[in-house]
Amino acid sequence: MSLAHDDPRAAKEKIKRANAEMKQKPMNSTQYADIRRMLDEAWELASQTASERHHEWRERMEGHIERWTELIEKNEGVIERLEQQIEECEGMEANARSDEFAGTVRGWIDEKMEKIRDIRRTNEELEERIESVKAKLSR
User: Fold this and answer.
1) pTM of the model
2) How far apart are CA 60 and CA 82, in angstroms?
3) How many Å apart are CA 33 and CA 24, to the nearest integer?
4) Fewest CB atoms within 10 Å of the CB: 11, 40, 105, 112?
């Protein structure tokens, strides 16, 4: 019976083969009924295990979608803050009293823009994962 827990699909295949072999063997109705009952119980256990595993998989996938969606929302907030900081830096750059300070501020702007690009790439990857998992869940 542990095969039904470990690998429900393989267990069902073995049960199918046993059913086919059983038809080829001479036995009385009591023997046939006993074996049939055992095979039915094994089939039910394998089916139940497969169903439980599928349910657990669905819950895990839905949890991933939820976490990834929350991360995208958090990242969007980070992007908004970085864009505000870029605007402030652009004002500092425009009003800089020296070329050296303007260059420093330009470096800050470039760093923030690179962070925004990285976060957007991450969000795109997360959205692709979400769509992929949703497609699998809809099958």
Assistant:
1) 0.73
2) 33
3) 15
4) 40
